[in-house]
Structures are given as C-alpha cells and as structure tokens.
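Inputs:
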Amino acid sequence: MQHADIVSKMTLEEKAAYVSGRGAWHTKAVPRLGVDEVELTDGPHGLRKLAPGAKGGEFTNLVHTTAFPTASLSACSFDPELLREMGGAIADECLEHGVAMVLGPGANLKRSPLCGRNFEYFSEDPLLSARMAASWIRGAEGKGVATSLKHYAVNNQERRRMYVDAVVEDRALRELYLASFEGAVREGKPRSVMCAYNKVNGAYCSENAFLNDRVLRKEWGFEGLVVTDWGASADRVRGLESGVDLEMPESGTANAGRIVRAVREGRLDEAVLDRAVGRVLDFALSAPSGKTAPDAELAERNHALARRIGRESAVLLKNEGALLPLDPSAPVAVVGELARTPRYQGAGSSFLSPPRVASFLDALGEAGTPFAFAAGYRIDSDDADPVLEAEALALARGAASRGEALVVHIGLTERYESEGYDREHLRLPPNQLALLGKLAAAHERVVAVYSGGAPVETPWIGSVRALLAGYLGGQAAGESQADLVFGRASPSGKLAETWPLALEDTPAHGNFPGGERNVLYKEGIFVGYRYYTSAGKPVRFPFGHGLSYSEFSWAALELPAGVASAGSAPTARVTLSNIGARAASEVVQAYAAFPESRIERPALALAGFAKVRLEAGETKTVELPLDPAALRYWDAKL
Ligand code: GLC
C-alpha cells in the first residue's frame, strides 16, 4: 500500500475523513502530517476553474482559459497526435493555475445521437474513442497533470443519470462500452478513473465491484485511484469495498461517521480503508507543487492550437460541383446569427470562459474578405422573425444577382443540448428550417456551415450545395471554419459518428432513454455504423465520411498473412497518392469483416486508421497496425 508510513500515523477518524474531498474541488489536507490539499477540476475541453472569490454556485465566474474544440469535433480529426497536443496544452494551463488533476476525457460511447452530452464524447466506435481518449490522457499526464477518465461506465444518456440502471448484455458491454475505457486505461494510463452516476446491471457504478475491482484493476491492471462523479456516492462503505477511493464533493461528517462505525463494528476491513487512503495520498503527494510562472504567450499559442485542431477536424459533408473553396478576395454574403454569435462549446461542467472567441465574421474581417451580413434568425427563440428573414432574403437575392457566394450558418442553439438533459428530436430549430428553404429559392449555390454537438436530420440537404460540419469548435471556431471555406487549408475531418436519415432509423430508437428505473440496451453490439451496415439501413452520411479539396488514389493493399497471434498487431499496408492539385491529408481506415464467423458479428468493425498528409503528386506507403481488440469478441460462456 502506498505511503504506509503516513497512513499508519493517521487516526481512524482522519482516514475516514480523508477519503472524501474538501469542498467541491480539493482533496483534504492533513497538516499534522504535512499533507497539503490539492485541486481537481474540469474538464475535457479546457481548464474550468472558479475565479478567486467566486461564491459557491457561481459556476460561470471562472478564470479565463482556452476553450478547445469539443470531443465531438476533435474526434473527427482521426489524429490522436492532435488530442495529445490538446491534453498537453490544457495541462500547461493547469500548471499555471496549480491544478493537480483535470477531470477528463469523456470516453462514453454515442449510443444514441439524442444524448445531451454527446458533444463531450468522441465516437460511436470504441477503437476511435479509446485512441483519442488515451492520447489526450498521455498529453496531460506527460506534463505531470493527472487526468480522470470518465464516466465509468455505460453512461450514455442524461435523463435520470443519477439512478437509471443500464441493463446491457455481456458482448455489448465488453466489445463496446467497456472497450472504449479499456483502451484508454491500457494505452493512456490515467491517474484516475471517475465512476458514473448510473447503475450498470443492477449496481451503482460508485459501488460496483465488478467494474471497479474485477475489470478495472484485476483485468486491466489499473493502479490509480477511482473518484466518484460529483455526488455519485450511494453507500460509501460499499463504495470503498468496491474500490472507489475518493468521494467528491466533500460529504461532511455523515459518511466519515459511517466509515468509522463500519470499521469499529467489523463490517469494513480497515485495510480496505487504508488502501483507499494510500491511493488518494499517492495522487496528492505526487501533484506538482506550486504554480508554474505565467507564460505571456500561452493564451495565444493555445488559441492557435485550438484553431488548428478545429481546421483539421471539421468535416466537409457535401461539396457539389466543387463549389468550395470560395475565393477569399471576392465579396461574400453571410446569413445566420451563429456566424456572429458562435456556439463553440457545450453547457454544464465543461463550460469555459475563454479570453476571446473568434466568430466566422471576425475571421472574415481578419482575412480582409469583403462581406455583407444578415442575422436571418434569432438564437434565443425558435420563432421566425419576419424582419430578420426579409433582410436575409434581400441579401441572398442581391448576392445571387451579383454572382456572389452565400454562406449560411445553421445549427443547434444553447437549449437543444447540454449536460443534464437529452434531446427530444434531431431537427434543426424551426426558424432556421423555414429560412433555409426560402434562401434556397433565392440563391442556387448555398454553402451551409453547421454548428452543434451532435448530428441533425437533413431533409433540407437538397437546398444546399455544400455543407461543412463544424460541430462545437472551441474559441477559434469561426477562424477554423473560415480557413476551410476559403481554402486556406483543405478539409480532412471524417465523421466519428453516423448522421442518420431519421431518428426512427437509429438503433436505440424505442429504447432511449428507457423507463423510470432502467434502460435496456436491446440493440446489443449493433451500435452506430455496426447497426446500419449490418441492417443494410441507408444513412445520410456514414461514419468515416469526409470530403477533401484534393483527390487520392489507392493501390497495392497488402494484408497480414494468416491470423495474427494473440496480442500482436497485424499490419496492413496501402499505397496512397495525392493526385489532386493541392496538399491535403487523408485518413486511411481499415475495417474488419467477419463473413464466415460462426457467431453473430457486426458487418464491419473499425480495426485501424492513420492520417497522412501528402503534397500534390506525392505518394506514400501507409502502415496501418490493426488493433487485435477490434477483431476479438467476448465469449460469454468462457
Ligand atoms: C459533473 C459531471 C462530471 C464533472 C463533475 C464535476 O456532474 O458529470 O463530468 O467532472 O460533475 O463538475
């Protein structure tokens, strides 16, 4: 057990108190033994830290920190290196503020596009999700800032998240929902894992020995500490026994008293308490001491990184007649309040207060692109505003008559998605839908830019000639989007989740968000593209889809001979050429199929991917290690 010397000097009461925090954002100090408190706080897209003097409950009174692209966008980069850089950059800001642990990344799978918190998660695929989470973790932990991989596990909806029981069969649990955490734990080696609020197959995650001890520690070899989600502790004594070490936030004397009594009455082995105390001490005593000196360039460096990540991640979904890129020197008409007031982050515990936010209009101004703007719709209401509509239509008609381009910003507004509740449907706000139809009648080459943490239904796709999915792009979102629309870079993002034609087509439909007490994962292993490809169900845009301004040709695919021995990573090789006129990046994706399998398998499973940048005319052989985890299945009998 770690720090046995200190633990042995602590009284039972001190130990019982130490396994719960001090306030909302600190571990406790033990001054008598020279143990200081350390700070742990959010979040996955940037450091969220209360401003000095902020009162309890003032959740938006925050220090200014970089708002990076959300996980729903950065996953589309298919570039783990970018996530490592993001984790490192957030760690730099943590070190300046003396924060010892940053609460992220989120590795829950996107079971349904309706989940209000999907903006904070990477993908519907466990391999992509695990790889991105592991890289973010390595980036932060590599700088000495601890991370907290969350929310372990099977937390795929916000409705009744504090108590709903996720009922999921072994194969889906092992091959999908736990696989996303397994890869992140094994490759990322996070200092901590955060247990979720919900139950899994009958037991709260905060006291689930199967998850916290059997799987996490005994099978995956995790040696860090398990911290509860804030307020997730149900029975604290059972929690300790299951392997949950630190309860957040502080729970006062109630649980400490229960722990003391349980030990005194022989219901809790003191060694179990000591083990938890040792793990929390190990975290607290290995935290960086003090704060690093403020780096005047850090904010600008991280803004530039946020812009680059957004640019490398946004997905060009449609580009009819190569309408994009636009000429940055030609006048352009811009419609949509979201072009002036960008949605760049999600609501809830990941909410940040960035030092600055660059809108699409700011980016046009910065680049010297002449533009005219009309809001077209309000973002604080779903009702159409006839005056705004008329102005937008007049601008669109004028642009059409002058042969100028029209860029329309559409997307989900604040109220449509957030931590704490789920979406009810997949539609755009009605006022935007109405305007889009009218704009398409006024201008025949509409470019649409979408902002939102998750997909929408696109019955209006015929009204636009080009569609760029910017998701929630962080504080530099407008610049990243403008960089792509005006060709300062070629898009290279690929969808990390399927865009279905309709909500009714989604695999969890009818079983999301479940009933009063539990939610049944009836779709089993058929989540996301695993379902649509197996069921032969058409979709609007498939997982892995994304267009480029250049063109690539593929040749000489070499596959590993025979079946790889357990644990080795068989490698595929493919020769890729950029036969277009400009430098661009491509994401090579390898999928496993199991045509002769004697057990039920999804039609396809992502088995490997690599992003490669090629100059015009350049050819490269791309090595593609195939992840054995993607080839295995869980045999419930064995
Ligand atoms: C919230 C979130 C979790 C966050 C924690 C602290 O409820 O579920 O992601 O890290 O509490 O804010």
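The longest strand covers residues 605-614. Flag for discussion at group meeting.
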